[in-house]
Specification:
Length: 275
């Protein structure tokens, strides 16, 4: 059985019967991300976040999180990852990395449904981007976009067992799935797939890639994709108003309601090849 899944007993109740059966739930556990920073006798540890996540791919999650929060700019800035306890991961950073502890005002708990809820103030929400999407690049055929959800769903093994996971998939501009990560939190899934790409030596910025997310497209997902220079973000659900505004400001192509051979383009229509 997949280690991301917990088997439980459940009852299905209908007007005519109550049937006991075995059901499978996606696991959800806290992960504390700590960083080691500084040089010499000034080196210290700092706890930067506790996020509720699906266990697995945790080093990728931490890598993506530190990058999309603007704490690191490249995977090479990570010296090592060490488990301090079952759900406490320490990321050792290069001594030369400067850390502004006052800026890291994210509260030490973020929910699985919305990572941005942990921010201490709106002023801390819009992280300064390391990269921005390139203007007019790439140009993608609508047929490529139509096929993204089916390709992603076919690769989601844990979702098929539980129905309880979000996914983020990184695709090239021909629609080839490069990386897929699942998590109970959609923002964690995005951090995992960005972290996986960084650790797989895909060169930053990711300006020729497409990212597809299950569910809706919230502000933080757009912010994370913008940090990596990803030019096209597609979601099977609706975007929020803040997601729309950030995508517009960042020059990103934002796609929503991608299902059944149709989608809405909210920003950046120049990257979608005319029908």
């Amino acid at each position: 059985m997949d280690t991301k899944i917990l088997g439980v007993s459940a009852q299905t109740i209908t007007p005519d019967s109550a049937v006991e059966h075995r059901d499978y739930l996606v696991k959800e556990e806290p992960l504390e991300i700590r960083i080691g920073h500084g040089a010499g006798d000034k080196r210290r540890q700092l706890s930067v976040a506790v996020t509720m996540r699906t266990p697995g791919d945790d080093e990728e999650l931490a890598t993506g999180f530190l990058f999309t929060e603007g704490i690191i700019q490249d995977f090479a800035q990570i010296l090592a990852a060490k488990w301090l306890a079952e759900n406490t991961l320490l990321i050792e950073l290069m001594p030369s990395i400067g850390i502004d502890e006052a800026r890291l005002t994210r509260h030490l708990f973020t929910s699985s449904s919305c990572g941005v809820c942990g921010k201490a103030s709106l002023d801390a929400v819009q992280t300064v981007s390391c990269f921005y999407p390139a203007i007019g690049r790439p140009v993608v055929s609508p047929d490529v976009v139509y096929n993204l959800p089916d390709t992603l769903r076919a690769a989601q093994a844990t979702f098929e067992a539980t129905g309880g996971l979000h996914a983020a998939g990184l695709f090239d501009n021909t629609g080839k799935l490069l990386l897929l990560r699942e998590d109970v939190g959609r923002h964690n899934a995005v951090d995992k797939v960005i972290g996986a790409a960084m650790r797989s030596a895909y060169p930053l910025p990711f300006r020729d890639f497409i990212i597809l997310v299950s569910g809706r497209a919230g502000f933080e997902l757009v912010q994370k994709a913008t940090m990596a220079g990803i030019p096209v973000l597609a979601a099977v659900g609706a975007p929020s108003s803040l997601a729309y505004e950030l995508a517009e400001d960042s020059g990103m192509t934002l796609i929503g309601f991608l299902r059944e051979n149709r989608f809405n383009v909210y920003t950046g229509p120049e990257r979608i090849k005319p029908v």
